[in-house]
Structures
1.
Amino acid sequence: MALHLLWIIVLTGAITLGIERFGFNPTDQGFVVAQSWRVLHGEIPHLDIISARPLGSAYLHVLDLLLPGPLFLISIAVATLQMIILTVVLASWTSDYPLRQWGLLRTSMVVAAVFLNIHLFPINAWHTIDGIFLVVCGWWALDIGLRTDRTLLYRFGLFALGFASITKQSFVPAVAVGLVVLLVHPASKKRPRFRRLGIDIVVLLAAPLAYLLVVTAAGGFGDMLSQLTGGVAATGRRIFDPGFSSSFVIAIAVFVSAIVFIIVLPQRVPARWSRWLSVLPASVAVATVLLVVFHGRLERAGVWGIALFWMLAACVLVDALSHRTIPWRPLGLLLLAWMASLSWGYDSPTLLAGSMVLLTLDLVKRNLLLPTVSEQNLWIRRGGALAAAVTVTVVVAGFVTVEQAQNPYRDRPRDELVADLGTAIPEMRGIESNASTFAYIQQIRQCIEAYPAEDVAILPDNAFVYPALHLHNPFPLDWMLPIELIGDSRERIRAEADRMQENGQYLVLFATVGPEQLASASEVPAVVAPTAPIVDPSGVLSDIRSRLKGRAVSCGSFVGVWAPKAESPARP
């Protein structure tokens, strides 16, 4: 276990420093941490913070703010560790193969799965990662705790499932699954559990109930209800209508044919032949899975992840028919993959791509009649399998590293990321981006220093600024993306602008350079006129600007309105 802990820590550091710290864009990155900054300072979800999702992730990532070190590098490391842990736990739980029994072969394949789960996703504090992480840990702890009669462990699992439901509505079904498992798990039938069932249900619902009570006690129940039900629905329809190209359709058809052949073959030919002949369709199945991964080129929210989903679904069905059992752990992964795809902008299960590949290969192996090998030749098969696994791991890790270097999230290729953003803002030490993004962020810091105020907002994006520079954003939303403006958001934002105008002591900056221009490293102007057009995808920024009557300012590529602090009268 010490060796497993060591490689997990080393891999976390390697991915954080070798891959994920390269590239930055002031949109998604920092959004959740900005919400954590708000709740750390006593703001109430939905009442003070507008959100289309419950803010469980904001509470979870207060940890990022409290850990020593540069905030954004720490935040990447925490999210990376979450991805590694959930991959390890899924690999152990879905295959019922305990971590203590893993050798180098199994470990190397799980490492490859970690890289595929990460693919080209910009790893940072994010509610979908939190939800997946909590559901995986919850299901594992619930199952193992019930099987081994460890009350504390299975109740931890129940609590984790409940907490997952307040990171994002997508993971509410995990609570229902937890309740069903609690009632029908084979271990539950060995002893009466009616006395403890009430406590178990309270533990399961503890996190959402506490969240509800806090928000309601503060007077935000109506706001919470309108915000959580007022957004555009995400139904996961793309999984069922992905628009596959012909190459993906052919790959899925070949894969299904191969696994059916593996099952049917032993019934049609003598056993001495089937053991050898089944190796061919198994090799085809494995090759097809790997071809889908490499053909998809790790595209963010790509259809390659959906193709892997349906390959796993076919494999689970064949496995169930073959063994005449319900493989509920693999079905759990499929359900989780669907929940992970319930997203406005990432409607694909690619965050679980590596775990789906690994479980698919596990199921293929489970149904494969391997040829018998003499003891003296056993080391040859084991050596060959180990060599293959290590090769795949190295190739996958290299593939992810190269693809990310060429195509970082909303940024330029690695050789153009020449600026350490920590030079502009110390909390961003270690994060490297292009020269245009650096100039943009440096301008933000310089403008805030040039126009000091109690309330500061940099719109429409730039949520990262508030925790990075320890600022108070007076508006109830840090990222004014049109789809995030749910319920009465616009009315509340206008009302806040009126209050700011009445109280004074504010600085509101409006970007004239959009995130797409930063991503393409277009030149950021050193000076713009105070009347320059602003980036306003929702229309609400122009409304804010018209309501603020302070001094019009221009600073770098930003224009804004400033109402400085009133100076204290001089003493006689």
Note: The chain is about 60% helix and 5% strand.
2.
Amino acid sequence: MAAGVVLTPGVAQASGPAPAAPTGQGAAAGGTVAGTDAARKLPGKTFSSPADRTVLAPKSGERAGVAAPAPGAKSAQGVQGSREAQGTQGAQGAQSAANSITIGLYATTVNAHGVDLQTIVIPSINSTLDVTISWGDGTSDTFSATLNGFASDLRNTRHTYAAVGSYDIKVTAKDAANAVEAVNQVQFVTAGAEFTPHTPTRLLDSRAGIGTAQGQVAARGTVALKVAGAGKVPAGVSAVVLNVTVTNTTGPGHVSVQPAKDLAETAETSNLNYVAGQTVPNLVVAAVSADGYVYLFNAGWQPVDLIADVTGYFAPSTASGYQSVPQVRAVDTRAGIGVSQGQLDGQSSLDVQIAGTNRVPQGITAVALNLTATNPQQDGHLTAYPSGQAAPTTSNLNFTADQTVANAVIVPVGPDGRITVRNGSWRPTDVVVDVVGYYTPDSRSALVSARVPFRIIDSRKDSWGRTAGPIPARGFLALSLEGDVTTPEVDGWVLNTTVTNTSGPGFLSVDPDPNLWSAYKNGTADIPQRPVSSTLNWTAGATVPNVAQTSGGKGGIVDLWNQGWQDIDLMVDLLGYYESK
């Protein structure tokens, strides 16, 4: 059997004698530590309505006008600009600047459901103003300000929406004594987006001319893939779940998936890596451009074929939120877990009960899995799809004879709460299915996608307070993702993990840490229990990626375990996070 694959709970197979665990840099034996408030490093998106869009309420016998900007009023910025105001400039003369109010609005996303609204209110004469912020969800906030003429009241007010979506924020300023009222408004879209499953569908296959011109993607070439409007993916989606596969490779390289061509071609991160002769899949949760595209860049120096299958999308509207669970093994054909013991025959399938088992409730729409093939007798692939449907022409992972390979999967569940896993090879293979989370209409935990994924950790370099150096054999990296907190705000992290510089076989485990960050800093952290699940598997000389969806521990810490007997290098890229606030 392949080295490093968990056979039964608490028992893992690995090659070579068991050396004593080395002591690393951190407070726990065998561990190293690194910390960053990762979620807060994602820039917020700003929506603006500048002061020159302020509308004055009409007096008796007058028409409504646009208030003249006060001296020094903040200029237009953000995503909206002031084009709407250009056609109303002539109306400014209908109102006297000697008796007016201007309001500038700048709304910035701060988390999945929250907005930070900056208001700049400027009267043209001495005024006592009563200001009302209507948030667009039926709630409002008020404040008062007494100002000398052309003095300004600048303040920030935060608000949290119960549900993700698009909201019209309206701000009204009244000067009752001078009979002046002004209004400005801005449309705000939450950063958080909820998930809608999609029947596995092929959107891109360069071999067949699906989604792009037929023919291999050139060395250093980019594919512009239309996502919104393709298949049954609607317009307005903010992120998409794709299973991306590279095949027919003749040299080494990597693939980056981004919402813009220039971002893909200059990315410091990667979604999957390959060498000559490999077929490599990886799950990608990618931000989508405003016009509905994602861009796939072949960073290698030889042409390749690219394939992309969609299994779901995220949009700023109520659908299904995420809920993580402690990673649990639902199926292991080697041990008879979840199914009868014995390999899955070629061209055969097995049904997996997801809903109602392993802490997963009924009524879910999709499940997040780690799917592994091991001990295959011949080259082939595995496909996961909703039960009760015909097998799609897509795949989730590809394998060669005797290979152990894993891939993250987000797959819709059938009406009976099951999924089906099909072995596309002509010969048997063992199959392992680990559940890491699920999507349900009962959850409001929404995805905040990193428009530009960024690298949190690269063990080959100094990063986030950690000195460069490999992850020790049988050791772990304790990665703080929320700073020093005792009540994490993030419900789950979407991380692309990549292992490289391997000199022997092994596997990576990703698990919440039971300690607080302060315990690591003062040297009192307890050594976490070694997990038995695997996120990705490697062999000597391989560079292997896979997505990990995981919650943090009570202190917002995630442990990344090197379960091999040789040191490795590890890279971790942040793709996004789930948050219910």
Note: Confidence is low (pLDDT under 50) at residues 1-29, 73-97.
3.
Amino acid sequence: MGMGRALAVAMVGLNGHIVEVEADIGQTLPNFILLGLPDASLKESIDRIKAAAQNSGIPLSRRKITVNLVPASLPKRGSAFDLAIVMAALEAAGDVRRTGRTVFLAELGLDGRLRPVRGVLPAVMAAVRAGHEEFVVAEDNVREAELVPGARVRGYLSLAQVAVDFDADTQDLVLDLPEPGVAAPAAETGEVRGPAPDMADVAGQGEARLALEIAAAGGHHLMMVGPPGAGKTMLAERLPGLLPDLQDAEAMEVTAIHSLDGSGPAVGQLIRRPPYEHPHHSASAVAIVGGGTGIPRPGAASRAHRGVLFLDEAPEYDRRVLDALRQPLESGELVLHRSAGTASYPARFQLVLAANPCPCGKATGKGAECTCTAMARRRYFDRLSGPLLDRVDIQLHVNRVSLAELSGAEPRESTHQVAARVLAAKERQRERLGRFGLAGNAEASGRLLRGVFRLPGADTALLDRALDTGQLTARGYDRVLRLAWTIADLGGHDRPDRDDVGLALTMRQRGMGT
């Protein structure tokens, strides 16, 4: 009898920490003690591990087994520690060998089958960064783990098969498991199922189409106010199609978030297309921002990282939910504090808000058909706080589509055509801002815009006057400048001129019926 060791990974947010699993077999009465701040689901692993080992033909020692998860001060949660714990206990009993340098990530079934766990991709990424190369996972997690460069991954169906590869005596091992049935193939989450929404489907709405193109090119936040049926949702659904594919580092980051979240299909390849999240207006702050008991989980804002977060009927959301988005809109990151620990998730998304002009939706034009009182209208938009709207670059009013526009025979630009201009504009931004470590205009700081890229006073006169008269805040001033640079990039100009600045200012002030 001696000591056994194996490695696992504890996830805190999107950050993984290597956990050394130590097992010791004492000379006292049978017992199984698990130390190192395990949560309730991890404590339940004791009975799963015993049954899995017994049914695999390698029962655990009948003496006292003490398992310690190091570092002991780090909270651990989830079932991904099952395999590491049983391998350490088996090594302590002399049943297997050579486990100390391998990272084990799998849940155990009572019959000894290895079951997949969520968060394998970020866990393997963290372990590789820490200098580890050998990984053992469930067969269904192999494709996901192999996405990480530098990882040597082995996948198994059962605990008995793992034990064989780690020098166990095969005499009593149960290598044949019951057939689990035919599983559906892993979803290719990087691909779009069915035809993608096309800009050619949008009738009329010339100003809104231009605003969508500018938002896509510069990574700007957008708000659309208009009557029901004007096409706000249709426009928002087409924004992801205008965005280029994610680069390798971005795709790895986005895929890691979706792997950790575990609410979607199994991750089989890198997610290359920008994600699109459209939560219902009844969603809670935890659902949008993230949180929950124990270590906080990612919410819709993090799942929309490098993509689009669309909040339809925005005034119907709880105001506290909307205001919780103010911090990630500025920093591109969500830091969630809970009693069990602090977790940080990236959340650099494009926010798209859509709203009716009033609760009944008929306060357009002269508003003769509107039945809402002035107090009802005010209360409706009061949920959209000034500080939140100040962070939204483009605010415009979307009008109803006329019959002539709806039945017009003139060809409309497709998503492919608009996306080509967006890509060219983004390339211009990378060339200009790359030396500052920035990828787009939306990330440019005010100091940079008013310093290295300062525009002549004659071109910013209208903008300067809006700031002096209180129509714009200092934050709004910088955001208009960012918009102007994006408009210039789409037009192929070296810098914005007076017309570009004027159009940017107009697009910021056309929402809420103004």
Note: Residues 180-192 have pLDDT under 50 and may be disordered.
